[in-house]
Write a structure and sequence with these properties.
single chain, alpha+beta, Rubrerythrin, domain 2, 3-stranded antiparallel sheet, 18% helix, elongated, binds zinc ion
Length: 56
């Protein structure tokens, strides 16, 4: 169920492709193959603190 996020280098569009898909990642907007994998960003500290405070 995991997917990888890509970002088109040509039009800047971000999109996700399922791991199951074996074909080359292609931009759904301009159909360019010039895409880069987006690195998953860690949760910001303020958001972690907020979620901790809200539980319990
Ligand atoms: Zn594009």
């Amino acid at each position: 169920m995991f997917g990888k996020e890509y970002e088109c280098k040509d039009c800047g569009r971000a999109f996700r492709i399922d791991e199951d898909e074996r074909r080359e990642p292609k931009c759904p907007g301009c159909e360019s193959g010039n895409v880069a994998i987006r690195v998953a960003q860690p949760l910001p500290p303020w958001l972690v603190l907020k979620s901790k405070a809200g539980s319990g």
